[in-house]
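Changelog entry: the dTDP-4-dehydrorhamnose 3,5-epimerase family protein record was regenerated in this release. Current contents:
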Amino acid sequence: MSAVQQFNKGRIHDVTCKPLKKFLDERGWLTELFRSDELEPEVMPVMSYISMTQPGVTRGPHEHVEQTDYFCFLGPSNFKVYLWDTRPDSPSFGVKQVVYAGVDAPSMMVVPPGVVHAYRNIGTENGIVFNAPNRLFAGKGKSEAIDEIRHEELADSPFLLD
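Regenerated structure tokens:
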């Protein structure tokens, strides 16, 4: 049996989290999800998708070798987002970070390659997540290997969700 890596609580280097502003008027609200003048070129999205996660359901943990994810958690539910820094050269190597995001805390989150991540819908409604990664899923024309290392089924996984 191999030793399970231990993680310490803290903030992960290169993970960006910022609140999203809602602009309200009599019609409803509007939120800017990203602006090219606020992103570094290496993070610039090349595609986007939206997903729905049912209450109590977890997506992940998984990580990418080259892809940076640009998540937006808006609601109508809340999420508990888990991050683990597995990058040996990172100043926050071995750190686990937990962020609450969603309808009560609309947030944008940049997750760089090598940071294992997962999120769980902790609300009572279906939750919507927007992602605009900087790499195409399965490459151009969906002809390449998928850049994803899945950890969901690992026995003795160090990526524990509480």
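The domain at 8-150 is CATH 2.60.120.10 (Jelly Rolls).
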